[in-house]
């Protein structure tokens, strides 16, 4: 799942710094964890917006 970083953070799993404004690929479960923590937003594909 693609996510866009809204607040810079250090990923505890990958040990990498994630910068605000960048887009990264994460497994769905990890993406949800990061979104709940307020670090990322899920990227929505254009075809999913219309459904």
Structure write-up:
- This protein has one domain.
- By secondary structure, it is of the alpha+beta class.
- The protein has helices at residues 28-37, 46-49; strands spanning 2-5, 9-10, 17-18, 23-25, 40-42.
- Helix content is 27%, strand content 27%.
- A hairpin with a 6-residue loop joins strand 2 (9-10) and strand 3 (17-18).
- The protein contains 2 helices and 5 strands, in the order ββββαβα.
- A 3-stranded antiparallel beta sheet has the order 4-1-5, covered by helices on one side. A two-stranded antiparallel sheet has the order 2-3.
Q: How would a textbook summarize the main sheet?
A: 3 strands, antiparallel
> Strand fraction band?
25-35%
**What series of H and E elements makes up the topology?**
EEEEHEH
Could you say how many structural domains there are in total?
Answer: 1
Order of strands, widest sheet: 4-1-5
First and last CA, distance:
18 Å
User: Can you count the beta strands?
Assistant: 5
Secondary structure elements and pairings:
Layout: E1 2-5, E2 9-10, E3 17-18, E4 23-25, H1 28-37, E5 40-42, H2 46-49
Antiparallel strand pairs: 1-4, 1-5, 2-3
Features:
alpha+beta, 51 residues, 27% strand, single chain
Give a short synopsis of this structure.
This protein is α+β, with helices and mostly antiparallel strands and 51 residues long. Helix content is 27%, strand content 27%.
